[in-house]
Amino acid sequence: SEAIREMSEMAAKIDDMFEQTIRVIEHDDPASVERVLLGEKMIDGMHQEYRERHVKRLVQGKCHPLSALVFVDFINNVEKVGDHLTNIVEAAKRGFIFDGKESGASVRGA
Fold this sequence. Notes:
By secondary structure, this protein is mainly alpha-helical.
């Protein structure tokens, strides 16, 4: 179904963002930073577009209301994961230093 395809597309983008986040942490890779930041914008756009499409499917009776709840919950959570990965990459760019203080957390070898 269209909803399954949309969920799969979002999951694939999050998988890529996760892999790129690991590359940022382990290798301080600027290209991976950019891929994560671009991925976040893409996830935000997908979230909005897919939610609107799903409302139309629901109104047209193409999906069950319970399925709609699962779909919306999934895309909301995937979007949040994208936000978290972006926050991790932003922190890594700063060397995990917050307000002039190191976080105290060791990332390498964890």
